Every structure is written in structure tokens, then in C-alpha cells.
Amino acid sequence: MSRFFATTYEYDSDSSSSESDLLSSSEEELLSSSGEESDDSLFNEDSEGSDSDVDSDDSDGKPYGPDWFKKSEFRKSGGSGGNKFLKGANYSDSEGSESDDEGKKVVKSAKDKLLDEMQTVFDKIETAEMSDDWISVLNEFDNITRLLVRAQQQNWGTPNIFIKVVAQVEDLVNSTSQADIKKKDVARAYNTARQRVRKVAKENETSMTQFRENPDEFDKEPTVDLESSEPAMDINAQFAANKSVNLSSLAAASSEVSFFTSLRIVIDSRGKKNVNSQDMINIIEDLLASPTSPYESIMAYLSLIPIRMEATSNLSYQPIDQWTAAYNDYMALLNLLEDSIATYRVSELATFNEDIETEPVADAQGVKNILGSLFAFVERLDDEFTKSLLNLDPHSSEYLMRLKDEQLIYNMILKTQLYLEQTLPAEKKESLLARVFVKRLDHIYFKSDKLNIIIETNAWKSVPQGSKSEYIPVPETIDGKYISALINSLCDILIKQEDSFLRTRAILYCVFFTASNGNFHAAKEMLLTSKVQSNISKSNSSLQVLFNRVVVQLGLSAFQACLIEECHQVLNELLASAHLKEILGQQPLQRINSNIENREEQCIPYHQHINLDLIDVVFMTCSLLIEIPQMTAFYSGIRIKRLPYSQKSIRRVLEHHDKSSFQGPPETSRDFVLYAAKSMQKGDWEASIAYLKNIKSWNMLPNKDVVMENLVERIRIESMKSYLYTYKRFYAKFCIKQLADVFNLDTAKVVEILESIIAEFEINFKLNDDKTALVVESSDEITKLEEVALRLNKEYKITKERLFPSRRR
């Protein structure tokens, strides 16, 4: 196949003879005769083909149109020329092997694709360099920086093509003077590119130096290791002389260097620029692979885990394989500490030991305390787990697979709690365990009892047999009572702490759990007694999000108990906000301003979200049951105080619907509630219930059947009220028994409702002596026709005054 048709061409010494023939017969001949053909065909008017038809595709004459630059062989229809390629003509049988080869697809790995994208960036920058297009240079440099992040997330290191691009842009910056740039946007792009390339070049100073010394080595392998190596026998001497030690050479010769010498080199290298974290990890892993004493292993793990965390600190979240490695390292450390609990302990209260080779002095009990914070590792691992959930697609299988690791997190928290209970001094135990209790509540406060029973049972199976907690005794069979006692006990301990953040968080956790278990009155009393709402506006964003979630859960709990008025009152103010997703922490992480620090505090993972459609349906249903009877009473002339309504109230939705020119059938959940309200206005309770039952969001309620049963009864009552208010002007008497039959209510219940209506409003209703009929007393109430006439007359007067303002006098 000719190189003219190849998108990328690479020479292969073992290529077929047919390809070599094609190259020699077509291209070499063309190259040798290119100048001659150009003279004859382009400029000689007396050439052979000058008299030929200019419209003929087979012409060898003067080139024309977009084909003027092509050689004659590529314009011939019979050769291997370009007309077949451009026209899509069928190839002959002799060319079948070539077409088959061209049709074959090469499957590339993700790493090769990434390297190809970086090579494309390199080529584009070369093209932009020719025209001094600094805007394109800056864009492509940003692209390859993002590609580098992808490579590092997959543990592919820093590809050599990235170093070549950095050197390419650096040379271009150095060879360009800002004074020569006239346009402002180009000058701005030049300055930005200069700043960024200097920063990146400084971060990769070692690789840049090696590239400048020997650039040919960077073309051999995509990620060749070019770091200089030094003999292992000189490392101890270098360290003793306080000289810099190459970590890659140390990793290769770690078996010949003493344990603490290698560990000290790694510890001193942390935080320095141009230090490869993977080299430090490899050194410590090699040290742990050989038999070591418990003290050496503990010191190695205490250094290894933070280095693993720091290696990915510039990424949006730690890659799952690296997170798993850090988790395994921590669990290995915890198992080692449990086995040697009588000799070695890691504590935040221990004193600092400058010489790591010397073991700490044993205390009165013979225990050597090593300075370190175990729970800091737990918090970091849990935070990285949450970050990964926030950055993954919640609707993908990858999210579900990642969510399974929550059980590992909870096992780790419980195991750490039990270890700290054994090692912490009694006088400071509760205050130091407060962080552990909060982290444990983070994973169980929002779950149902069934899920909590599963996660708690599996967690206790993962700890050594016979382990016990002195704060929450574990029964033989974990059930719902134990879960309630566990959460209440943990919250009680946290409420006693001096830290206001922990206290507030514990109260909100307890209120949320109590409300989600259907105990609305207890949860409401707990929240009002704590007075958290008075200072919540001054708290940080995570507490404000949690408080809003508690308020919503309170409203849903009231609705499940069929406390319609309480539910409407709780949700009314919160749902008036136009940014409900944001205040509930359910906004996608990508949509939050990147300038805000700790964006993760303002978001919660998808599996903790409260369904917004369910919240909307619950509020509109409560609004329907409260506002529809009041609307019909007001429009029928009854003196009633109209309640203020929010943007999402059913009254506002009805007004908007009546003004719309097209009114189609119900489709969304809001539409079904709207049509249920219109049916209730007419007293058609059966149609109203039918519309509400078509809403699928009710399936998210844990006690759906009980809620729907209570909801049906309430709709019958409110529909009867609406019917009486609307049609009272047309009747002189209502039969109680007939009202009970129409609305499927007991006679006693109907009488009770009518008595409450008469007592509440100044209405011209009266029950007869035996309470079998409702008598509508005569009054000066106008009819519906008269009401319309009066309204029309009023509108006429207003219009007349606007059109003829001079006649007012």
C-alpha cells in the first residue's frame, strides 16, 4: 500500500515483497520524475494532453481543479492512483489482498490510545508553532496536562512524550519575544503558557535534564526509566555524608542496605520536589517482604500508608487499586498491633522519638508507645472512598461495585474502635473516641433497620472472636432494638462532649434516625428542645446540609403518620427555595464552583439522596388536602382566612393550569396531583384517588399501604367539605345518610365533620333535631350567576376609568 493512502506509516523490515514493489515502482519513479512532469504538464501548453477533453477523468493532460498538485499516476484510472480512492471505485481481483489488509482494524490498549493522543498533541503544537498560534499551543498544552492526570490515575507514570511536549513548549517560549506579539489575546495566551510550562518543567526537572542530555533515548520506549543509577554499596556512605540518594537505585539495592537506613532515606525524601513516590513505596514494600521485627514492621507501615495517600493527592480521588493497597496495609498494621498489644502500641499521646532506630522506652506496664494516629488513616481512607463515589457515575455498575466496599470501611472503623478502647487511658477515652463514634454514625444513621442489621452483623464477624465494646454490649442476635440502642448510645456520648460541632452533628443524626423510623413526635420534640435551628446558619456547610435533610425527613415522617398539617408546615419553608438540590447536598460535584474549598462537604453520595420527586409529591398532596377545601369555601362566599401559598402550592399550579391554552392528559407526578385537585373541587373523590394512585413515587415509602389507606379516608372527608361549600347555594337540605353513602363514610363520622364545620365557620348550616339532615338556612347570599354579573360589572368600571380618565371628574 502506498504511503499516500496510509494515515500513519512505519517502516517494517519484514514487510511483504508486494509492498516493496509498490514503493519502488510507483513512488520512487514519481519522485525521480516529479520535476520533469511538473514542467511538461503544468507549464507547457503544447503538451500531449493539451487538446484532450478537460472533463475526462482519464486525461493525462493539464491538471485542473483540486487535483492540480497530484502526479499523473494518481490521476490515471487504471493504475494504483487516487481516482479509485476518491471515487470509491471497485478494485480488481489482483488488488483484493491489499483491500483486505486495509480493512483490518488494529485493536489498541487504553495505554496505547493515550500515548497516541499525546503524540497528536505534539504534532498539533508543531503545526501551531509555524504560525505562532499561541492560543492553540496553550489549549493543546492544557490537553496533554489532563492526559497526564489520566495516565497517573492508571499507574502508568509519566510518559516520555509528555516530557517531549514540555521541552517543545519550553523551547518555543524561550525563542519567542513578547514584544513581537501585537494581539492582546495572543499575548495573554503566551504569558499563560510561559507560566504553566515553567511550573511543569520545574516539577519534572530531573526528567527534563535527562531529555536535554539524550533526547534519542526518549524515542525508544514510551515510559523508559532514564534515572541514573548508583552502586548500592555507596548508598550508606552517601547517606552518612548527607548527600542526595537516588531512590530508584536504592529500590534496586534495598536488600544490601540496612533496614533503618533505607527507611530514614525514604522519610527524609518525603515532601521534596522531583521525588518519585512509587520508588519510595517500592523500597518500603521490599523492606516488609523480608523478615522483620514487630517494631520495624510498625515503623514501615506508619511511613508506607501516608506515602500511598500523598502519591495521589493531586487527583480528584484515589484510584481504587491504590486505595485497596492502602486499606490492606492499614489492616495489616492493625492486625500486627493487636498481636503485639502487650509490647507495642501506636498512640497519639506518645512522645516523639527522633531516632527511629532506637525503640521507645517501655512504661510501667512494659508497653512501648509509638507516636502515630491510627484513626487519621481511617478518616483518610473513608474520605477517599466518599470522593470516589462522588466522582463515579451513580447509575453505572462501577458505582455499585464501589459501594460494596462500605462494608470494609465499617469493619475497619469497628476494629479500630475496639483497639482504641483497649489502649487509650480511661480519663481521656470518651473524648478521643468521639471521632470514631461520629464516623461510625456516618454510615448507619440514614439506613433502614434491615440494612443496619446486615452491616453490623458482618462487622462483628470480622473482629476477633470474643471482642466486646464497653459502651454498647452486643447481644447474640442483632436486631432492630440493638440498632436503636446503638445509635442512641453513640449520640448520647457525643452530646456530652465539649465540641459544639460533634454535639450538633450527634443531635441531627439522632433526629434523622428517629424520624426515619416513623416516630415523628419524638423527633420533633428532640429537635425543638436542642434549639439547633437557632444557630444553624452560623455553622459550616456540612452541618447546614445535614439540618436540611433532617427537616425533610421530619416532613416525610409526618406524612407517613397522616399528619397532613404538620407535614405541610415543616416542608413549606424549605421547598420555597429555588435551589433544593444544593441545600440538600444533592447537587452534582461538577456543578459546584471549583473555587470553593472542600467541595465534598457540600455533596453527599447518591445512595444517601432523598428522592426529590417524592418530596414534591408529598408537599403537593398536603397542599391539595389543605387548600382545596379552603379555596371552594372562599369562592362560595364563606368568610375564611386564606393561607399564604408558596410557588409549589396546588393553588398556584391550578391558576397556571387554568391560564394555559393547551391542557393535555396527566403525564408527570405533578400532573396527577393537579388533576386529583380538580376532581376534588367537584366532589369526585373516586377520580381524585385514582389519579393519586397512579403516582409511582409512593413505592419509595416504607409503609405505602398504610399511607394510602389513611390518604383515601382523608380525601373522602375533604371532598365532602368541598362539595358542601360548592353546592350549598343550590340546596335547602342535605340528607346525612345520602352524604355518607356518596362519600363512603360512616354516618357518625359525617355528623362529626358537619358539627366541626358549623363550629369553625360562620356558615348558614344547621343540623335537625335527630341529626338526619343538614338544613341550609336562607340568607342574602347571591347566586353564581349574580356573582359573575357583579364581577363583570366591576371589570367594566375599571376598564372605563382606564380608557376615559378625564371623565372621573
TrEMBL record:
Any one GO cellular component localisation term in the record: eukaryotic translation initiation factor 3 complex
Composition bias type Acidic residues, residue spans: 26-58
Protein name: Similar to Saccharomyces cerevisiae YMR309C NIP1 eIF3c subunit of the eukaryotic translation initiation factor 3 (eIF3), involved in the assembly of preinitiation complex and start codon selection
Region (Disordered): 1-104
Biased composition (Low complexity): 14-25
Domain of life: Eukaryota
Gene source species: Maudiozyma barnettii
InterPro entries: EIF3C, EIF3C_N_dom, PCI_dom
Matches recorded under Pfam families: eIF-3c_N
Coiled coil (residue ranges): 775-802
Keyword terms: Coiled coil, Cytoplasm, Initiation factor, Protein biosynthesis
PCI domain boundaries: 606-781
MF terms in GO: RNA binding; translation initiation factor activity; translation initiation factor binding
